[in-house]
């Protein structure tokens, strides 16, 4: 059913969903477990996590520090492995992927936004935004053209030539968002994107993420700030590696 | 597989990490430069040694008679010893292992030599036919002296190339008659000599002719012979036999170093080449260590460079780079930088050696230092390979881990 939907959408037969949550599952986790080995002990970070995020949704994951939010998001972003359970991304099982397949998903399907930006320090804003396109084999000229338009979209067209060290935290995060968007992914995963920013700048970043979501991209934001979480459709609470049941109540509408 | 974009990415990365790039380049270039200089010095030394022995056959033994310094069989000291044709015959016929033998009867130095209106003075030597083997004489035209010349006491001469040039210019010298202190000799050969200009400004005439023409009777000034490919021990055996023979014939003590002055080139050459072999071994060992040091240096820098880039690798992987792309880029960078730097070192070394051989005056230590390009290029290739491998393994390891692991690295 999902394949059919995608096909129809790509052919323009269906309008891209604008903020209305579709019936199509984008992320589905069942009984995901993950533990870290510390010496002889195992630290059980995620315990039987079940999660269902539909295409076009904008959800936030909340929880206290150390509750496993980043671990969960990294697994969703295929940046990390999980021990057991099932993970379906767009109805495709994500398990024991080859490096090539994993790279392909990270490149074309997922856009990741980090709390610490993770820009390449020796590349300017434009070049940083263009990195995912480089790994798609897009020509230099076309890369720069597309990257420029995304920089423009986050309001940084004038900062194209600047190195990350010459920019403020908010600007760096906007560059990172442009980079996450440039390959036109289906999902944006943002790990405390406003964690290092003041509230004014945080709202600007959330504004951008909301616009991204309105263009049809599924957005998952990890945060521990209530005012940030409240700007999403739904809050998922993590506590000691378990998803808190009982309040999957939509925040808005 | 040429990928312009990949190259641009590599130049960009190299340019934006100037210190890292410069350090790698320097360690490679320096290693190769040192190696080239070392190998150059080695060959320079060898050439100098060979140059010292270029004149005379290295398997020869040379003898001149002297004056007795020890009493012997009732003879007082201070007696002059003189070689004669009979000594020549005895050695030739009775000593085992003598290969080519010749005597020399020296005419006065700088005799006046004329041809037509041309007139100059040259050294004239008289000798046996085998002389050409002892002096490394190379015939360009005609022939050297032969047995018949001696038997018939012919008035024939073999002349050096500069002599022929001076006397004859463009004219054909063969068969022409020249005058040496008024006596006419027919030119039968023209030669050059690896001993250089000095050994070529000479004229050779048959020893028998000279002895007769200049009233020397049977006298010979010098005797010398080669010993084939005899070992040092064998040459010593021959040397002792000849010494005993001459001592007996001329009644002097075989231990009397003054009565018979003898030079054994086999032994001398062996000594010098032993020293040289030692030096060559030293050069190779130091060269080898230089390369090993270079490899260790390059590997270290690569290791650090990859470590430094762990986070970059994590970011690139999160953006969708495959391990192959990451490793490919790092290895290509390593190969490029080491190859360029190695080439620079090679070039600098060769230019330096060229300058030395061109501008450093003739000396006793080194002559025309040059490097065996095959060795130098192999060393460069080795360093490039080392750089590639040293880049490959840590990059491969770093590129295989999950992005979170690389990103966690600070
Ligand atoms: N690589 C690791 N090795 C060991 N423990 C880890 C590692 N990464 C995270 N942890 C631990 O797992 C728990 C959850 O971490 P994390 O997912 O980063 O939490 P959050 O993002 O919610 O603050 C924490 O207790 C943390 O210390
Ligand atoms: Mg976290």
Number of domains of chain A: 1
Q: What is the fold named in CATH at topology level of chain A?
A: Rossmann fold
Rg over alpha carbons of chain B? 34 Å
Distance between the termini of chain A: 27 Å
Helix coverage percent of residues of chain B?
55-70%
Query: Structural class of the secondary structure composition of chain A?
Result: alpha/beta
Portion in beta strands of chain A: 25-35%
Contiguous runs where pLDDT drops below 50 for at least 5 residues of chain B: none
Task: Based on the model shown, name its key terms.
heterodimer; A: about 250 residues; Rossmann fold; four-stranded antiparallel beta sheet; 8 helices; 10 strands; about 35% helix; globular; B: about 400 residues; alpha+beta; 2 domains; six-stranded mixed beta barrel; two-stranded antiparallel ribbon; about 55% helix; elongated; binds adenosine-5'-diphosphate; binds magnesium ion
SSE diagram, text form:
The complex is a heterodimer of chains A (253) and B (410).
Chain A: H1 2-10, E1 25-38, E2 41-54, E3 58-63, H2 69-76, E4 84-89, E5 92-93, H3 99-108, E6 110-113, H4 125-134, H5 140-153, H6 169-181, E7 187-191, H7 199-214, E8 218-222, H8 226-229, E9 234-239, E10 242-243
Parallel strand pairs in A: 3-8, 3-9, 6-7, 7-8
Antiparallel strand pairs in A: 1-2, 1-4, 4-5, 9-10
Helix pairs in contact in A: 4-5, 4-6, 5-6, 6-7
Chain B: H1 4-16, H2 18-52, E1 60-65, E2 83-84, H3 85-94, E3 101-106, E4 111-115, E5 118-127, H4 131-134, E6 137-142, H5 147-151, E7 156-160, H6 161-168, E8 177-180, E9 183-193, H7 197-200, E10 202-206, H8 207-213, E11 219-220, E12 222-226, H9 232-250, E13 260-264, H10 265-308, H11 310-318, H12 323-359, H13 373-400, H14 403-408
Parallel strand pairs in B: 5-10, 7-9
Antiparallel strand pairs in B: 1-12, 1-13, 2-11, 3-5, 3-12, 4-5, 4-8, 6-9, 7-10, 8-9
Helix pairs in contact in B: 1-12, 2-10, 2-12, 2-13, 10-13, 12-13
The structure holds adenosine-5'-diphosphate and magnesium ion (MG).
Residues 36, 38, 43, 45, 63, 65-71 of chain A line the site of adenosine-5'-diphosphate (ADP).
């Amino acid at each position: 059913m999902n394949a059919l939907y995608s096909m129809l959408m790509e052919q323009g037969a269906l309008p891209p969903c604008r903020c209305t949550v579709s019936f199509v599952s984008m992320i589905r986790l069942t009984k995901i477990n993950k533990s870290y080995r510390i010496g002889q002990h195992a630290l059980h970070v995620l315990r039987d996590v079940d999660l269902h995020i539909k295409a076009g949704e904008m959800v936030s994951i909340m929880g206290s520090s150390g509750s496993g939010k980043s671990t969960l998001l990294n697994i969703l972003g295929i940046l990390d492995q999980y021990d057991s359970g099932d993970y379906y991304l767009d109805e495709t099982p994500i398990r024991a992927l080859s490096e090539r397949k994993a790279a392909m998903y990270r490149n074309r399907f997922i856009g990741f936004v980090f709390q610490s930006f993770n820009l390449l320090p020796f590349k300017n804003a434009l070049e940083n935004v263009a990195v995912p396109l480089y790994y798609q084999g897009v020509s230099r000229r076309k890369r720069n053209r597309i990257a420029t338009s995304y920089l423009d979209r986050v309001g940084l067209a004038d900062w194209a030539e600047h190195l990350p060290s010459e920019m403020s935290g908010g600007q760096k995060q906007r560059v990172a968002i442009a980079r996450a968007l440039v390959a036109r992914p289906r999902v944006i995963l943002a790990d405390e994107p406003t964690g290092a920013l003041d509230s004014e700048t945080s709202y600007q970043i959330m504004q951008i993420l909301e616009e991204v979501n309105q263009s049809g991209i599924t957005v998952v934001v990890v945060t521990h700030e209530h005012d940030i979480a409240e700007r999403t459709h739904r809050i998922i609470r993590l506590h000691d590696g378990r998803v808190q049941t009982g309040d999957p109540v939509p925040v808005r509408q | 597989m040429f990928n312009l974009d990949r190259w641009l990415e590599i130049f960009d990365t190299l340019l934006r990490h100037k210190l890292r790039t410069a350090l790698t380049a320097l360690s490679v270039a320096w290693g190769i430069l040192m190696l080239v200089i070392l190998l150059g010095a080695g060959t320079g030394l060898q050439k100098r040694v060979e140059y010292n022995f270029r004149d005379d056959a290295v398997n020869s033994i040379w003898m001149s008679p002297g004056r007795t310094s020890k009493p012997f069989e009732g003879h007082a000291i201070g007696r002059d010893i003189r070689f004669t044709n009979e000594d020549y015959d005895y050695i030739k016929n009775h000593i085992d292992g003598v290969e080519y033998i010749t005597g020399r009867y020296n005419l006065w130095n700088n005799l006046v030599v004329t041809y037509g209106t041309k007139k100059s003075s040259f050294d004239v030597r008289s000798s046996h036919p085998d002389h050409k083997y002892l002096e490394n004489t190379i015939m360009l035209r005609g022939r050297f002296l032969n047995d018949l010349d001696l038997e018939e006491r012919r008035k024939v001469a073999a002349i050096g190339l500069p002599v022929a040039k001076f006397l004859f210019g463009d004219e054909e010298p063969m068969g022409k008659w020249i005058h040496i202190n008024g006596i006419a000799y027919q030119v039968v050969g023209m030669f050059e000599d690896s001993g250089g200009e000095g050994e070529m400004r000479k004229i050779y005439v048959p020893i028998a002719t000279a002895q007769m023409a200049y009233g020397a009777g049977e006298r010979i000034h010098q005797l010398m012979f080669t010993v084939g490919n005899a070992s040092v021990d064998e040459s010593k055996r021959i040397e002792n036999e000849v010494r005993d023979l001459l001592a007996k014939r001329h009644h002097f003590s075989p231990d009397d170093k003054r009565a018979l002055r003898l030079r054994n080139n086999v032994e001398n050459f062996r000594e010098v080449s032993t020293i040289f072999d030692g030096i060559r071994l030293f050069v190779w060992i130091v060269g080898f260590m230089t390369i090993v040091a270079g490899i260790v240096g390059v590997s270290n820098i690569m290791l650090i460079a990859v470590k430094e880039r762990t986070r970059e690798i994590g970011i690139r992987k999160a953006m969708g780079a495959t391990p192959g792309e990451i490793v490919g880029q790092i290895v290509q960078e390593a190969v490029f930088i080491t190859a360029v730097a190695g080439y620079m070192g090679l070039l600098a070394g060769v230019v330096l050696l060229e300058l030395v051989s061109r501008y450093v005056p003739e000396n006793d230590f080194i002559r025309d230092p040059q490097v065996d390009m095959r060795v130098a290029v192999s060393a460069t290739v080795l360093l490039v390979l080392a750089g590639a491998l040293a880049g490959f393994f840590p990059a491969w390891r770093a590129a295989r881990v999950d992005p979170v692991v690389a990103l966690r690295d600070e």
